[in-house]
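User: Predict the structure for this protein chain, please.
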Amino acid sequence: MAPVNTIRLIGVFYLTLLMQQVFSQPAMAGVTLSTELTDKVNLELAAGNPVDLIIEYDDAEIETVTKTMRNRLAKRRDNDEIRAYKVEKYKALKDRVDLPTRRPEIEDLQSYSHLPMGFKRFKSKVALEAFIAQAGVKAMYINEKMHLISIQNSSLINQTFSYKLGKQGAGTTVVVIDNGLDYTKSDFGSCTGIGSPASCKVIASIDQVTSNRIIGSRQAATNHDHGNNVAGTIIGVAPGSKIAAINVFDTASGAYSNDIISAINWGISNQGKYNIASINLSLGGDTKYTSPCSNDWSSSTITSAKTAGISVVIAAGNGGYTDGLISPACSPDAVSVGAVYDSNEGGISWGTGCTDATTAADQVVCFSNSANFLKILAPGVNITSAGIKLSGTSQAAPHVAGAIAVLRSAFPSETASQLQSRLTNTRVPRVTDTRNNLSFPRLDLLQALASLPTNNNFASASALSNTNNSGSVSSSSILSTKETGEPNHAGNTGGQSVWWKWTAPANGQLSLDTHDSNYDTLLAVYRGTTVNALSNVVANDNDGFGVGNSSVLLQAQAGQEYKIALDGRNGAAGFVQLNWKLNPSANANLSVSITGPNAISLGTQQPSIITVSNAGPQVATNVAVTTTLPAGATFVSSNANCSATNNIVHCLLGTLGVNSTASLTMQVHWNSIGSNTQLLASVSSDLPDSTQDNNAASIQVAMSDGSETGDSPTLPEWGMIFMMALMIAIGHKAQFRSLKLNSKMQNKGTGH
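Assistant: Here is the predicted structure, written as structure tokens:
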């Protein structure tokens, strides 16, 4: 029988063949930075334009020496002595490359003294080619504009809105089993030591490799880029959580099952102490499993963690499988995570041998493993965190690990299974992997956080503060309902409303809006005490701000309680941002004028144009025009919302902005005219008016003298004219006959 240590070493040898490897960014093939750089540079130089490029010098020799210095000085990071050494050697390296190619066509823009980097401007292709030919040039990069994870990637999973709701994972910890991290980075609170100062987010940093030398002499990994990116992604999703970092990788980028088991064991034993919500494993082996691997070394360990209340989140792998996962993601109780794009990244060919000719948000990445037992999808391409940009299922997994920390903080009494169910509930978006036509839930933190809003019903409306004249409140309408008898807000059926109430502390103009909400809102304000008998004050669907946001203005009366309903158009729901402001000194300077007619003819219909102006300083709400007609005049129609009672016409113009005007045309029929021929108009609004002497205007209307083309006789007048003409004609005819008879008689007498 072989000695125990020999058996152990043999076992370790075979374990090595199946060892875990970090799923960092797969190397790009076909679409590479050098190709993009060449295309851009050639295009710019051909056009006679200079190009600005970032240069990376080959500092491998320097790093080898400084690594030895750190080991000799027992320093985890560079001290003053090492930094001074690097500054000296960086300068020598850069001079060795730059001096042979120095010419007017190459301009130094910046030389970074503490980095093997430079920033140069090249003015000719010949100069650029000469520089590239130098042996010390490691890489050249386009001066690219970067984006933060909290802007691009967190928008897809709705982390921004969970943050505004105050759901940030406070009081929880996530264990990151990876290749360590640099806790001095600002992303982790600029720690000077574990847990120090108070801003430090790292409560543990454990070197599992050097503390466990079962597999001979191994040195812990010193390149923490992958661990920094993973831990930074978790903090980006759950900024209130803490990180416990356990390094299980050596300098050869190898990790062993025994170290991983020890790390998970540490998490279980410290769950109560640190309120550990999740463990992230962005690593895996080489064996493909086409079904859950219940017999794998990871299965029991992960199940024990789940029993302790810890969700173990694991990268699905970058093998591009469409019918299998690798270990430990294949474990039945693992929260396995595949990768999707979060935006259009253009066509990409990956070093794993697959290509996505086109890309779009919520498209499964071709390198992502997939199978019918994959649990969830999350963003995994070009994830920038802690100053490192990587792609892979390694980057998708920490999004989910951070989300579980947020859920644990929000729902502290729920089990790991319950929290995981929130991630995959029927409300979250589902994405179809077109390679195998399987559908998976895609991480949506806002949907996962959803619970029945406390202000779902009218009777349980939340009170807005009236101690200040302005404020805002963040909430969620997800899972809200519409009550029986509830009105259709802003004329839309809606279906998922939440309610607030507010009592005006003083008279003034109240503005309310839903700006920064993430869905198409309906906003309405009411008076009343029961939901089925409310008096509408004002309502709005879209105000043109953002996508479907709403806003209203009203003149509030001191002591009046207003009920505020916020619904979603056609039943939409999401993150709610309600903002309000009361202006007790609001006023508007309204004026009114009338034009035409100056003269009328009885029995005709004539228009009058009434124009209203607002000189401010505030927007006028519920602007109304009242017109008094003289006796004998009748209101016919208008292009405004008008109604008439006897000789009084009321017209509603609604809201009138500062320095804005509105006109209405009123058609009036003139039946008769008396001594009073004055047409009088006045204007009012909800706001006090600073200058009231221009709130009314009038014109005098006179009878036409008939010279106008429009002054024609009426039908009765035509009849009288016709009768007079007929009588005159008859009279003329009788007179003619009489004259003719007399003439005949005279002629007869002359003949005797």
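The chain is about 25% helix and 30% strand.
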